[in-house]
# Entry
Amino acid sequence: MLGFLVRRVIQSVFVMLAVALIAFLMFRFMGDPVNSMVAENASTEERAAVRERLGLDQPLWLQYGRFVARAAQGDFGLSWRNARPVSTLLAERFPATAELVLVAAVLSLVLGIPLGILTALRPRSFPAQSLQLISLIGISLPTFVTGILLILVFSVWLGWLPSFGRGDVVDIGWWSTGFFTLAGLKALILPSIMLCLFQLTLIMRLVRAEMLEVLRTDYIKFARARGLSNRSIHFRHALKNTLIPVITIFGLQLGGLIAFAIVTETVFQWPGMGALFIQAVSFGDVPVMAAYLVLVSLIFVIINTTVDLLYAVLDPRLRVDGARGAH
# Structure
């Protein structure tokens, strides 16, 4: 296990270096940001001073090296749009995105797994057939269409929930949370439903397919022959093996929730990192875009490594194979 962890850390370092290089090169050639930061009648000396302050007068390889060194310390330079440290902007926006993703992930697990079990154990029942139809619609509909429909029904027609913003928040140190205010909780409902819908339907269908396959295996037949109750077979033996691939998919999708929260934050004007990234793209704010891509990639790497470790812990066959490979 230790050797596996060391290998994954080394791989992660190379992955992050590659991502940093791609992000730096991709957005380095989007034009001269000095033209957007100074007046049209600015003198050559003023433009040169701004260029020197941003470090744009250095060679490209040196700029990349300084970018990597500072990024490792959490310093991504100054935003070309706001003239503020990028790390400060991300720290202000990260709590909103983190809470949105957390609620969406919890909803997808809490609802997806039981619904998947239900559709697997009673596949021909009316509730199971209805859930299958609803899940198909949920996967097929574009995310932004779902968000617009939610706003139309619950905000415009019924007036129950807010259609935009984060509501009232409470500051706890540098972290701002909406969990402790009624307005914050109400504002969180529609965006989290929109964000979790695809993940929920995916988990439900995956649990259903995996459980149906596990219930057809020989050891389940032996368990029935031994006289074990259906409850014990379904929830003690079958469910445990069903959840192993679900953990892998959920881990990968969790990173996707963070990356693709951009659409949700745009539809609901949620003040998170995704909205900040969209603003940066509109303005050509290279430091913010590069920092966002590096941060999201880092989260992906951490989540994937954690999922691999959990997979090895939950599946004894992987530990046995790893021990044999070591010898």
